[in-house]
């Protein structure tokens, strides 16, 4: 499994979430508290939106805790929206092209989870990807394939619907092969304007996912915490597991939930996989 986080709000330096909190993403790469296997050392990545239309991406197959370049970049860059990920491989190699976030144009994608018995259905799923997207697939992970299936099923026009169709297609494909509980996923997706997060699994075991409370509520709860005071009212942080152990700061997303983080009112709705029309 993996750990990831997404930030939306006023521009901040990514180091504020990657390194500074007592249970930061870098700490989680070494000792996750909500995974049976606490180590996420098979690579990492940071994707951020800045001065260009296309987001910047820095990925490496080395453990996040040992990469000095990540520390340098995250201390100098400021971004209003970024995704970061630390990887624990479920069987595919530790190489740069298998590290998240995955990118196409303005879109970024991170994933925690797996397709059950992936090698049995890899070819069939791969052949369903839109041929125009095929050259963008550089690695061998089920995560990157899930991204391109979502793009194939309309991610750029209807993000939550496309993720539902992607999940429905994977479940249908696996079920035809007699594979139980095909899909486990928490997903983060962004186009630079919004951040979408989904928590879902085909079976009863569902990977964790949390979102921060409204920033003004957090400031009222902890007026003496100086670090919390500068976050804007628009700030939301989506995380695989909490970065700080402060009651009232984190709300766990229910399984089968899609969250849209955006300027103004955020949205939360049920997430229900469905088979794409014509498949």
TrEMBL record:
<dbReference type="InterPro" id="IPR017932">
    <property type="entry name" value="GATase_2_dom"/>
</dbReference>
<dbReference type="Pfam" id="PF13230">
    <property type="entry name" value="GATase_4"/>
</dbReference>
<protein>
    <submittedName>
        <fullName>Class II glutamine amidotransferase</fullName>
    </submittedName>
</protein>
<dbReference type="InterPro" id="IPR029055">
    <property type="entry name" value="Ntn_hydrolases_N"/>
</dbReference>
<feature type="domain" description="Glutamine amidotransferase type-2">
    <location>
        <begin position="2"/>
        <end position="264"/>
    </location>
</feature>
<keyword id="KW-0315">Glutamine amidotransferase</keyword>
<dbReference type="InterPro" id="IPR052373">
    <property type="entry name" value="Gamma-glu_amide_hydrolase"/>
</dbReference>
<dbReference type="InterPro" id="IPR026869">
    <property type="entry name" value="EgtC-like"/>
</dbReference>
